[in-house]
Design brief:
The chain is of the alpha/beta class. The chain folds into four domains: 116 residues, HAD superfamily/HAD-like (Rossmann fold); 60 residues, Orthogonal Bundle (DNA polymerase, domain 1); 158 residues, 3-Layer(aba) Sandwich (Rossmann fold), CATH 3.40.50; 91 residues, 2-Layer Sandwich (Alpha-Beta Plaits), CATH 3.30.70. It contains 20 helices and 13 strands. It has a six-stranded parallel β-sheet with strand order 3-2-1-4-5-6, sandwiched between helices. The protein has a four-stranded parallel β-sheet with strand order 9-8-7-10, sandwiched between helices. A three-stranded mixed β-sheet has the order 11-12-13, with helices on one face. This is HAD hydrolase-like protein. InterPro entries: HAD-like_sf, HAD_sf, LarE, Ni-pincer_cofactor_biosynth, PGP-like_dom2, Rossmann-like_a/b/a_fold. Pfam families: HAD.
Length: 469
């Protein structure tokens, strides 16, 4: 997995419109000192340290005292009236959405900067104050920031010195031309544009990482179920390595719905990839049949124990699974452990690609699987502790086919085998079902082999069996 995303933000004129409050504090300070500061001129390009702003107007020996008094006046004159720029909260939320950390690195006196963050309820993990220009680089490196967002040419200097991507917004006093001349990588009109930029930046960064990883592997056999993740991995491998260096292997067993087999083969063959369909015998593993919380471990162990020798026999250097970055942080995933123990690689996870990014990239590549609903193996429908048998898997598959014949507009569907009855999960937007439709649906499920059935009023929930763990 790549390192956690960390994004640094400047404060004044980047996240907050400091100018009105700054003017009020200067006016109050000037009144105390008997000096009429040119406040409009002094606030035209906020960002430089306070001593630099005061230097042209005060004697050298008076500056330190004036700074102390400015900071003391600041809370009463500048906090309540200083607004967040439009898009500031959304920019911070965009980083959070990608599992990242927000760091504010500012030249402002740290206690006053903290008052702004608290007053505006900014979602920030770390604040560093009283740092300026290239001095910001030390903090950015220490925090692991790879992106720094600011409004001033000196923010650009700090980002570049830290080897971070410099993102500039035009809400401060610097022009686009000045920022570009300073070397910024990106200029945005406002922070409103930042979430979309971040989404695209991370997608391209991670796709490039995936391509590099696959190129270095030389050849791969993809553990291929035909779902969105493994189909995308297969397509990416062909792009990086060429079809002759890529294989697809789909383990045929009772747990793979028959309806999934032909579409999966057709997609792989459309890429020019040889499709191997070895039989797997997870049902012969006691731990799999017992269906404890670690059932997926035994399933994945069986699959990888079959695919490892198969890859070697076909001269393919690695077995690759479609595990993505979301899977890696989703909590209890014993199958991932089984694959890792057997040396399988997970290029999507290692590149940091999330499910949403995989679907977006698949859409751009015109892959038919880009919006394919998640389709976990049939065994995932059987409640933990209820023995997995070919009979149980067969009636679950029959029941789901029957439900789709009744409810043609359903997208996400699971028939859960709870041992003594079936629980039917469909898209929550379809609930509650009309009474006659629900009767027909439950009749169809009972006709598939269940003695009793009910519709779950909470609707479809991926991994709902894990709720009982």
């Amino acid at each position: 997995m790549p390192d956690q995303l960390v994004v640094g933000f400047d404060l004044d004129m980047t996240l907050i419109d400091t100018a009105p409050g700054f003017r009020d504090v200067l006016a109050a300070l000037g009144a105390e000192l008997g000096i009429e500061f040119p406040v409009e001129e002094m606030t035209a390009k906020l960002g430089p340290p306070l001593d630099m702003l005061l230097e042209p107007h005060l004697a050298e020996d008076a500056i330190a005292g004036a700074i102390d008094r400015f900071r003391a006046l600041y809370p009463d004159h500048a906090i309540a009236g200083t607004p967040a720029f439009d898009g500031a909260h959304e920019a911070l939320a965009a980083v959070r959405r990608h599992g990242g950390r927000n760091v504010v690195v500012t030249g402002k006196f740290a206690p006053n900067a903290r008052l702004h963050l608290d007053h505006l309820a900014f979602d920030v993990d770390h604040l560093a104050g009283q740092v300026w220009g290239v001095g910001k680089a030390d903090v950015l490196r220490q925090e692991g920031a790879t992106i720094y967002v600011g409004d001033h040419v000196h923010d650009v200097e700090g980002a570049l010195a830290a080897d971070a991507v410099s993102v500039s917004v035009l809400t401060g006093g610097c022009t686009r031309e000045e920022l570009e001349a300073a070397g910024t990588h990106v200029v945005l009109d406002t922070l409103h544009d930042f979430p979309a930029w971040l989404d695209e930046h991370l997608l391209q960064l991670r796709l490039a990482a995936l391509e590099t990883d696959l190129e270095q592997r030389g050849s791969v056999l993809v553990a291929y179920s035909g779902g969105a993740d493994s189909a995308f991995l297969l397509a990416a491998a062909v792009r990086a390595l060429g079809a002759d260096n890529v294989g697809a292997a789909t383990g045929y067993s009772h747990s793979l719905p028959i309806a999934e087999r032909d579409p999966a083969r057709e997609f792989a063959e459309s890429l020019g990839v040889e499709v191997l369909t070895p039989e797997t015998h997870e049902m012969e593993r006691e731990g799999y049949r017992a269906n404890g919380a670690d059932r997926c471990y035994f399933c994945k162990a069986e699959l990888l124990d079959v695919l490892g020798p198969l890859a070697a026999a076909h001269g393919l250097a690695h077995v690759a699974t479609g595990t993505n970055a979301d899977d890696a942080v989703a909590g209890f995933r014993p199958g991932i452990r089984a694959a890792a123990e057997r040396g399988a690689i997970a290029p999507l996870r290692d590149a940091g690609l999330t499910k949403a990014q995989i679907r977006e990239a698949s859409r751009r590549w015109d892959l038919p699987t880009w919006d394919k609903p998640a389709a976990a193996c049939l065994s995932s429908r059987v409640a933990y502790g209820v023995e997995v048998t070919p009979f149980r898997l067969g009636r679950v598959e029959r029941a789901e086919v029957a439900v789709r014949s009744v409810l043609s507009d359903v997208v996400n569907l699971r028939v859960r085998d709870l041992g003594d009855r079936a629980s039917v999960e469909v898209d929550a937007a379809l609930l509650p079902l009309p009474a006659d439709t629900e009767r027909s649906l439950l009749d169809a499920v009972r006709g598939a082999g269940f003695d009793a059935a009910e519709v779950d009023p909470r609707g479809f929930r991926s991994g709902s069996m894990n709720e009982a763990l």
